[in-house]
């Protein structure tokens, strides 16, 4: 059933109709017929059992006890029939009460029936009504609840019969297998419903993103591109405005295509500098794993091209944050040492044993021995911000630079635990 309000909010009038995912409160269509069938089963089996007791009235040792139980069962069924029309109405308290009536009726048979008739295979007072109680547990809670309820009914039947008679064992096994099978089918159907709901949500989000991408491409992105071109042509402060518009254009394209750009922090400048690790790692991933793509995507801009795999590249949250900070430090070096006009390329690769990020620029390159000289002079940007971070993670940081042809930094972080004593950070010029 389409949710008109949700569709209007998500896509607006221009989006057309976007299929809304099923609301969590609604049950799947396959479960509702089961509840209706259970309601009908309880009514029909009650009528059958009343007729059975009436036909056997004169054979009971205490016929008034049998009639009293059937009267109580009839009143209970009439008062509680709505409880089996949906999962929300079928509470645990009702299920416990219904099972109590069934088990109590089985045990009451020992009082109202003679021992000879019981040993001869006479039906219990609730007869096949007992199955309705067990099926309620199966539909509500799955096969585990069904197993527990049917086991209680089995114990009551064995106590009533006082021996392992063949027909008793047959009836007990039949109820047990049927209830467990139905409970298992219900669980599988519920899992399928959740999978379908998730697929519908993804489909709706994808269609909405495509619509937004079309609208943004026809309006916002074209305006930003025009501001970038005009600003570069005018020069001065307009050139800086054009550069910022270009960065926002790239970020917006990334957002509408992949949704990997996190919301910018209040007051954060538009720069390639590495954000603090605590701010870069999503809060919900602080104790788990994090997609490295989401942390590197914000570095993309008019002067930085970011290339990524099509699937998630996951690392422990701390390792992902440290790697992103190291990439930010490498891009800072590009901005400071290669000049404002230099371009940089960031390539993220997901290898079987490690995650590799390569940062390459088209700057003048690093003269041979310059990194070692900078470390001796106390300028520790490379030693601490990049090499130190990777060493702590058991990874490596390698520089390859040719004067006049730019610099390439390869950052490698192993996916497993950092081995003891591992060292990284070789520099080649």
UniProtKB/TrEMBL annotation:
Domain of life assignment: Bacteria
InterPro entries on file: DUF5931, HATPase_C_sf, HATPase_dom, Sensor_HK_TwoCompSys, Sig_transdc_His_kin_sub3_dim/P
Residue intervals passing through the bilayer: 34-55, 61-81, 93-112, 118-139
SUPFAM superfamilies per record: ATPase domain of HSP90 chaperone/DNA topoisomerase II/histidine kinase
Record's keyword terms, sorted: Kinase, Membrane, Transferase, Transmembrane, Transmembrane helix, Two-component regulatory system
Domain Signal transduction histidine kinase subgroup 3 dimerisation and phosphoacceptor: 208-254
Name assigned to this protein: MacS family sensor histidine kinase
Lineage: Bacteria, Bacillati, Actinomycetota, Actinomycetes, Kitasatosporales
Limits of the DUF5931 domain: 26-197
């Amino acid at each position: 059933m389409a949710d008109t309000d949700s569709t209007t909010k998500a896509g607006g009038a221009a989006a057309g109709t976007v299929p809304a995912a099923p609301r969590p409160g609604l049950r799947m269509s396959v479960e509702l017929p089961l509840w209706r069938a259970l309601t009908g089963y309880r009514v029909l089996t009650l009528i059958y059992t009343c007729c059975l007791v009436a036909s056997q009235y004169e054979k009971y040792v205490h016929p008034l006890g049998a009639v009293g139980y059937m009267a109580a069962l009839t009143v209970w069924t009439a008062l509680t029939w709505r409880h089996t029309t949906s999962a929300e109405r079928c509470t645990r308290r009702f299920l416990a009460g219904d099972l109590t009536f069934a088990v109590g009726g089985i045990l009451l048979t020992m009082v109202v029936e003679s021992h000879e008739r019981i040993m001869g295979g006479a039906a219990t007072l609730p007869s096949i009504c007992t199955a309705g109680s067990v099926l309620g547990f199966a539909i509500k809670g799955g096969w585990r609840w069904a197993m527990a309820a049917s086991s209680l009914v089995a114990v009551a039947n064995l106590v009533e019969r006082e021996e392992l008679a063949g027909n008793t064992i047959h009836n007990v096994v039949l109820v047990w297998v049927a209830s467990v099978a139905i409970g298992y089918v219900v669980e599988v159907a519920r899992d399928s419903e959740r999978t379908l709901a998730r697929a519908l949500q993804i489909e709706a989000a994808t269609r909405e993103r495509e619509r937004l991408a079309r609208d943004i491409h026809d309006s916002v992105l074209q305006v930003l591109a025009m501001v970038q071109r005009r600003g570069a042509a005018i020069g001065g402060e307009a050139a800086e405005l054009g550069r910022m518009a270009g960065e926002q254009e790239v970020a917006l394209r990334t957002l509408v295509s992949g949704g990997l750009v996190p919301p910018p922090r209040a007051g954060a400048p538009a720069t390639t500098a590495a954000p603090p690790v605590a701010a870069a790692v999503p809060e919900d991933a602080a104790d788990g794993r994090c997609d490295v793509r989401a942390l590197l995507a914000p570095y993309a801009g008019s002067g930085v091209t970011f290339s990524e795999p099509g699937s998630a590249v996951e690392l422990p949250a701390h390792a992902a944050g440290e790697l992103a900070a190291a990439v930010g430090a490498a891009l800072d070096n590009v901005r400071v040492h290669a000049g404002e006009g230099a371009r940089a390329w960031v390539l993220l690769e997901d290898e079987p044993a490690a995650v590799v990020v390569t940062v390459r620029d088209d700057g003048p390159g690093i003269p041979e021995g310059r990194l070692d000289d900078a470390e001796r002079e106390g300028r520790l940007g490379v030693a601490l911000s990049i090499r130190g971070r990777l060493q702590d993670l058991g990874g490596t940081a390698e520089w390859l630079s040719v004067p006049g042809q730019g610099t390439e930094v390869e950052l490698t972080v192993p996916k497993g635990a950092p081995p003891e004593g591992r060292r990284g950070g070789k520099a080649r010029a």
